[in-house]
Amino acid sequence: MITMTSVEAQNRFGRLLDAVQREPIVITRNGRTAAFIVSPKDMEDLTNARASRSGAVADFEAWGQRAAASALPAAAELTDQDVLRLVKELR
Fold it and tell me: N or C: which end of the chain has fewer CB within 10 A?
């Protein structure tokens, strides 16, 4: 990943636009990261990954609710240590 200062980014904006097509660029200001610049393709990939992750989280939460609804009452009394012991016994 290329790193450049905000002053370099301003002074070499055309080069920045060309370079970001090859890899993301970190822009720093006063020695700290101020921004990341990514290509439209990278941004699309990031957006798709975020949407996919949100869907996976929603699916997992729905599964958790179904599992809780179908669990036996005794399951609520199990401690983390009980669960670990049971898992080790089943291996």
Answer: C
> Which strands sit side by side in the sheet containing 2-5, from one edge to the other?
2-5, 25-29, 32-37
Homologous superfamily (CATH) for 2-38: YefM-like domain (3.40.1620.10)
Q: Cβ(25)–Cβ(2) under 8 Å? A: yes
Contact 3, 22 (CB under 8 A): no
Every domain of the chain and the residues it spans: 2-38, 42-90
Give the pLDDT score at 73: 85
> What letter does residue 39 receive in the DSSP assignment?
-
How far is it, in rounded angstroms, from Cα 9 to Cα 39? 15
How much is the pLDDT for 87?
A: 93
Residue 5 CA to residue 39 CA, distance in Å, equals: 18
